Amino acid sequence: MVRDQFLSELDPARIDDLADLNARLWAWLETVYHRRAHRGLNGRTPLERWQQDRLQIRSLGRFAAEIDTLFQHRHRRKVRRDGTVAFAGRRFEVPYELAGRELMVVVDPHREQVLRVESESGEALGPATPLDALANNRRTRNRGGSLATTPAVAPVVNAVELALERQQSLLLGEVR
Fold it and tell me: Domain limits of the chain?
């Protein structure tokens, strides 16, 4: 139906970009497709069919805010001695005390972004931040496993990463 009706009516010369095409598709769906009778719905419109069962459809409630976490991907990785893991050709810093352990790297597949690391049982182990080799070139490790920074280098704060980490924490219900 989309091919026969929407695409045949579409004028490619009037489309500026993908957003414009999407706007036209949604407008067509709302004003034409959902309001025309369909044989597969015994002559009813999709809008009428949806309204028939509307009262029986349950809301996701508080689950709606957590649904994205169900679709996150998890990949097993071993933490290197320097406290990093590799994923998709990039390296990420994780808490140094995890060096040598196997863990799961949690990835948002829609944004193609590494979010955090966790144990195989799902316990949060800490953040996974992209390794910035330039900012960390003077960073050393103490024998006890704690981080030490030479006094000549001021810590680098990436406001974008901090904002993203804060947003993800709020979405997951962790208040910092």
Answer: 2-56, 65-171
